[in-house]
Prior knowledge:
single chain
Amino acid sequence: xxxxxxxxxxxxxxxxxxxxxxxxxxxxxxxxRDSASTIAQYAAVSRTWQKEFVEPLTxxxxxxxxxxxxxxxxxxxxxxxxxxxxxIRFHVFLDKYERHLDGEQETPTERQRxxxxxxEALGNFFRVMTHWQKSETSPLGLDLHLLVxxxxxxxxxxxxxxxxxxxxxxxxxxxxxxxxxLSIPVIDVFSGxxxxxxxxxxxxxxxxxxxxxxxxxxxVELNHDSTRHRDVYQRNCxxxxxxxxxxxxRVLSLRRPSPxxxxxxxxxxxxxxxxxxxMRAFSQQCESFEFDDCxxxxxxxxxxxxxxVFEKSPRSQEVPLWMRxxxxxxxxxxxxxxxxxxxxxxxxxxxxxxxVLVAIGRATSRMAELTFARVCQYVLADGQLEWFVLIxxxxxxxxxxxxxxxxxxxxxxxxxKHSIAAKGLGIEVLYETKDPNIPEL
Length: 441
């Protein structure tokens, strides 16, 4: 009897079409939420299915815990499988705690225990990763996503979006590594690093980054921009250490921690402080730079507001030049949460938003390769949230400016037009808000 038809006999393109269709019905990135089927059941169809369809989706993102490191090594012993991995999610679990402790910060003893758990887990993980070679990893790069949390950190309460909230203990209990006992080897396989879950102190983040020699993408939390000694120290150490420990980073994304449960005053306005001087300096090596409230946009771009009306620049400070920057994303809020209130009223908020938009417009003249920028400023006043958004999109020799939520003043629009014209580009301005009552900035 002649053998039956095999999927292996089909052209590669036809097989890929079939894989795509099956993928949309299973627990792949295409999966519907109500689908109960799993991709694992298709592994037995044929060896070709397993290699071409199942494994690329199964191993694209790998989740591993400290207890599963041995299994991780066994499953990914093959260089072929290692080349399929694009993200490793290293999930570290801290100790559980009783529900009545949800709103209490960790005690010093408990914090020390969390430090020991994380320090040991990272040491073991990094030693395992020394067996990987850069040549074995995906041509798309390999990212490390560090997630640290206690199983008890999820609150029984539900947020506005329907998802579970985290406990007050999770928000208040920061993490740090024991830098004196930390022993992790240098590895060169990761091109990206992201940290989520419990807030990890920036000095500890830098300790990890210093061991990732080929790191190009960094996505982490800064400490709050407050007057607390710990926050000031951690922010300054991070900014000053980036140039030494993150020399290869080209994509930088910075976030503020979760909202403060115990409010602290905002830091005084110091645009020429060590933090802002070093952050401006480091950002000039980036191809993509993104930040939210953790960096005050007015202070960061103050060199472009220098003049009798605005600021006096120290003679030692040169105007930044972002030769590589292609993408910029800036988000700041006003009068929403401590310590990011920034102003006392809506009038002051709108004046500050105007300054930000003018400064960044001027700054784009120093960003020769810029292809996309999004500046989003939002103000909470009298219970109403107002959004002021300006988007810059470059297509070949033409720039499109999209304006939402406000009418740009002659000064503001002139700043952007002048910078764009200086680069020999055309400009089109699209006003996407039709409300005649929107403010002029």
